[in-house]
Amino acid sequence: MLAINILLLYSKPSVGCQDDDEKIAKFAAMRGYEGVTGCSDFSRACALNNRVGDKLREVCCETCEDYGNVESIYPPNDGETVQVFLLAGQSECTGSADPDDVNSDPKYSELHGDIDGVWFAGYSGRVGSVDSFFVQPMKADVAGLRFGPEVSFGERYHKITGERVLILKYCRGGTNVHTHWNPTTAANTWDNDEDDGTALWMSENAELDFQSKESLYKNMVYTIRRFTEAFDEQGLFFEWKGIIWVQGNGDSREGDPIWKTFGENTAQLWDALRDTIGVSAPIIDQGSSTKSQLKSGKEYATQIVCQAKDIEWARSANDEDASDCVVGPGNPCLGENNTYINPDFYNYYGYDPQVPEELKPPGSTNKTFHWWKNFPYDMHSAYEGMILKGRTLANHFVLEFTDGIDLPSEFAEEDAVLQFPWPACEAGTSPGEDNFCWIDQRDEDLMIDLCDESSLLMRGVPKVCL
After folding, report:
1. How many structural domains is the chain composed of?
2. Which stretch, 61-65, 200-204, 325-329, 447-451, has highest mean pLDDT?
3. How far, in Å, CA of 107 to CA of 332, rounded?
């Protein structure tokens, strides 16, 4: 609040519209951004669609003059195909990791600056706008002051395959598949009979609203069109390679039973995204947290749509039947009798330096690993946790959906899912201190392979599609 109050005292820029570097440096320091000496350092914040962004555009008027129009820099037009991944979901997809942290850590030098062979397409600003879409080489601060799994996913996939790769990103924190991403709601539909299939038509006729969470699927369709048209205009070749979906907590309490509602809503969205891009692209998915209901729903969704894989790791377990406490980004349920922390996991990677010694078990490692943004109040991933997330998603996309390519041993050794898998609990058991598992909530008749050929034929999938 203090920083905001100071900004409110700033006067509007004088005639001539000159940047006030002293004021912006003071503002940045008060908000914890080190090394900001003036407006150019903080230029990405010009696109923030909130009160702070408004004041930054006043104080940094020259720098922010074209804040909504980030220059696009495309891959070379040399005939090589770019492999495109669609990245979508909620807050862990948006990301809270600080680019300055990764850029100052020599362990991650391969993620410093522009990443060779990898591009980003998406929006600048907190929630984006029609005017803020751009394409540029991938780097940690490509889209602003925070990053998600796109940075390390792209770097890892390129390193394994040697292919050019682009991540098309549209994410929004605190959202659900029940309503916000639901392709059938009134806010997410438009006049398909009049639609000519272009991004321009949608921007003029589909009532796009990037400020609201109610029309995320519609915004995503626009985003996909905007990207494909941009690449077509440049004469660039691309292939839809996959979908990365990072979401779950927003649907923790919706449905009866939750797993079935969540699974069906997720599958409905995945099918709609595949229809939009025109390809049954494989899906790699994460976001169950420690919740058996969400994990069960995700497993059900992968059965419905097929060619989809949910990956999670066993750094903790949660018995939802033993307590009312629900693990979430703002509450790790410390001290609850239903939450179990896996000490082997943290001894392997290291403990977050924010975790006090009294919370660690005896004999814990002294290694550190930056897992969380602000333990225990904000459990969104800090830079190392986010890097691990992106790399793990890339590893398992390759393992599940790419033939003829082996995962290098050094990548497997750092992979959280391979080193600490999260299995379903054996019959009659529950999560506990020595049993890091999830309880399969699905009806027994659904715990079968719905994606084999006979099952798909029975569900009406034409044999020519198998």
Report:
1. 2
2. 200-204
3. 28
What is the extent of the structural domain holding 26?
Answer: 2-59
CB-CB contact of 110 with 191 (8 Å):
no
Note the pLDDT tens digit of each residue in 331-364.
Answer: 777 777 788 999 999 999 999 999 999 999 999 9
Predicted model pTM: 0.86
Question: Which one-letter DSSP state was computed for residue 255?
Answer: S
Same domain, 230 and 98: yes
Measured between alpha carbons, how far is 162 from 324 in angstroms, rounded to an integer? 47
pLDDT digits (tens, 9 = 90+) for 225-278: 999 999 999 999 999 999 999 999 999 988 999 999 999 999 999 999 999 999
pLDDT confidence of residue 4: 39
For the chain, give percent helix, strand, coil, nearest 5: 40, 15, 45
Residue 116, both tokens: 């060779």
Beta strand 82-89 with 165-171: parallel, antiparallel or unpaired? Answer: parallel
Tokens of 52: 């702070």
- For CA atoms 115, 116, 118, 124, give the dihedral sign: positive
Whether 465 is covered by a domain: the verdict is no
Same domain, 18 and 140: no
Identify whether residues 391 and 440 lie together within a single domain: yes
Residues 52 and 86 in one domain: no
Give the DSSP letter string of 177-195.
TTTTT-TTSGGG---TTT-
